[in-house]
């Protein structure tokens, strides 16, 4: 392992007072996560950055014989569900092709994200017809199933999954991420057992979760459900997954896929040096994601502390010649158990391909990590304020 990787490992181990994991657990994790070693091959800088970026681009999720390789920066398609601007179907599919052509070939969606699954079906057919087989082999479509609290019969689960398969025009879903609203209803175990059977029939390649807490993840694994990942909210502001959840994931091999990593765009230059207390003085919080994550900022420490964080991130970004969102994503990708982080895409309206691809070659050093953690340590512990992962969706 080269000097950069060693210094980064030492930084995280020496800064444990800023992180929830124990010294031993965190250091074990860093030793086991080979990606730390990738950027340290410094004998030929230009070649090395390209090699590091290529090797750091994809991650294998697995549980037993179930495997799925994804791009570590995922294209989140919540923004197709309304509230972010009108989506033109043709423009959206062209944008998806652009992302895939530039190596950003994993798309995350849900059954309730408006036309997201339908757009993926059109997109994947374009890939089949117009792109080489090598690109098709790297494209991944991850969807979610968020059922109502009804009895989870085999026929109901199977019919629901068939809807997504038809919309996405695939014989087997690459990944089905399951969400459940009410833990007092144990039907989630029935649903997951039926999903496991459907996986055995070849209708699903991998089973995963979204917004499950640590206790329920443990129960699910104890029931023999082959979960490969749990999708949770995780950002520099919201470090809850690095408490109980990451420790269980490290023990079991389950990975984390994170969303809210750039906080709907709040973690960007656009909101640097702005004062939202003055009406119309700053950028409008005019999307569901901006409004959601502004509430998270308020719970964490308020706008003044958030501005201090943005200024610190801007200093780090300038040092490396990247943007604030790139730093924000890289920081979370380097956390234990994190396999991939999501950036929401406004297909056909704006794009972030350059910033997203810059994540793969960015290496945060000891000084960067220390400066960021000195600010975040001033914020409230959101585990105490909100609860464990996903608890924000289950409180009255």
Automatic annotation (TrEMBL):
It holds the Pfam family Aldo_ket_red. Residues 74-374 form the NADP-dependent oxidoreductase domain. InterPro entries: NAD(P)_OxRdtase_dom_sf (IPR036812), NADP_OxRdtase_dom (IPR023210). Transmembrane segments: none annotated. Gene3D superfamilies: NADP-dependent oxidoreductase domain. This is Aldo-keto reductase. It comes from Solanum tuberosum (Potato).
């Amino acid at each position: 392992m080269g000097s950069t990787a060693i210094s980064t490992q030492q930084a995280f181990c020496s800064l444990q007072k800023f992180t929830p994991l124990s010294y031993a657990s965190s250091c074990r994790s860093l030793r086991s996560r080979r990606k730390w070693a990738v950027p340290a091959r410094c004998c030929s800088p230009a070649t090395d950055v390209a090699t590091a970026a290529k090797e750091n681009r994809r991650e294998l999720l697995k549980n037993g014989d179930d495997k799925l390789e994804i791009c570590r920066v995922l294209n989140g398609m919540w923004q197709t569900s309304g509230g972010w601007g009108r989506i033109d179907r043709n423009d959206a599919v062209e944008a998806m092709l652009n992302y895939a052509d530039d190596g950003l070939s994993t798309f995350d969606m849900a059954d309730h994200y408006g036309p997201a699954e339908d757009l993926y079906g059109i997109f994947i057919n374009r890939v089949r017809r117009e792109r080489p087989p090598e690109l098709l082999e790297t494209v991944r479509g991850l969807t979610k199933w968020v059922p109502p609290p009804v009895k989870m019969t085999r026929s109901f689960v199977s019919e629901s999954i068939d809807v997504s398969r038809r919309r996405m025009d695939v014989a087997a879903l690459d990944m089905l991420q399951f969400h459940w609203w009410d833990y007092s209803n144990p039907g989630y175990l029935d649903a997951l057992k039926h999903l496991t059977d459907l996986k055995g029939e070849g209708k699903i390649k991998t089973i995963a979760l979204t917004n499950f807490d640590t206790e329920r993840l443990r129960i699910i694994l104890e029931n023999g459900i082959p979960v490969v990942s749990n999708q949770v909210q995780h950002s520099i502001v919201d470090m809850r997954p690095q408490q109980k959840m990451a420790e269980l994931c490290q023990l079991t091999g389950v990975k984390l896929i994170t969303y809210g990593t750039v906080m709907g765009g709040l973690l960007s230059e656009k909101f640097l040096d702005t004062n939202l207390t003055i009406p119309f003085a700053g950028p409008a919080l005019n999307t569901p994601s901006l409004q959601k994550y502004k509430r998270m900022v308020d719970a964490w420490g308020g706008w003044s502390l958030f501005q201090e964080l943005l200024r610190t991130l801007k200093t780090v970004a300038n040092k490396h010649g990247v943007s604030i969102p790139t730093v924000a994503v890289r920081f979370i990708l380097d956390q234990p158990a994190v396999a991939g982080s999501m950036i929401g895409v406004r297909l056909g309206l704006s794009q972030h391909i350059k910033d997203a691809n810059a994540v793969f070659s960015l290496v945060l050093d000891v000084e960067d990590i220390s400066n960021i953690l000195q600010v975040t340590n001033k914020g409230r512990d959101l585990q105490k304020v909100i609860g464990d992962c996903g608890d924000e969706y289950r409180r009255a």
